[in-house]
Amino acid sequence: MMEDTMVAPQELAVQPKKELTPKEEKTVPARYYVPNTDIHETDEALTLVMEMPGVEKKNIDVKLENDVLRIEGRIDFSKYEGLDPVYAEYNVGHFSRTFALSNKIDQDRIQADLQDGILTLTLPKAKQALPRQIPIN
């Protein structure tokens, strides 16, 4: 006899945006949020997938300085002028996040791609950090 393996439906919960509490002050008087980020690892690279809804390619800065990867996405607020939302589940604001990189990342080969509000960063591992097979004599 086969058991019924139906999974109970789960309620959808709204995830509030986490407001960034910066260590340094921003020169732009606006709220900054921490973009939701997934990190995947393979033998060859780390992949960071970040949600940045409403941010255009021209308004994203990805900078690397002193082993710190800094990502900033700015919203064009002119698109929201005059709108009076009846209901809103997330606040509109800029995005900012930083990551400290180790020497296991080949910093010269980092790549970034933006598709439909999703920023994907590929951080290739340095050659010395790649797994390798040791021959037995």
UniProtKB/TrEMBL annotation:
It comes from the Bacteria. It holds the Pfam family HSP20. Gene3D superfamilies: 2.60.40.790. Residues 28-137 form the SHSP domain. PROSITE patterns: SHSP (PS01031). InterPro entries: A-crystallin/Hsp20_dom, HSP20-like_chaperone, Small_HSP. Belongs to the small heat shock protein (HSP20) family. This is Hsp20/alpha crystallin family protein. It comes from Vineibacter terrae. The lineage of its organism: Bacteria, Pseudomonadati, Pseudomonadota, Alphaproteobacteria, Hyphomicrobiales.
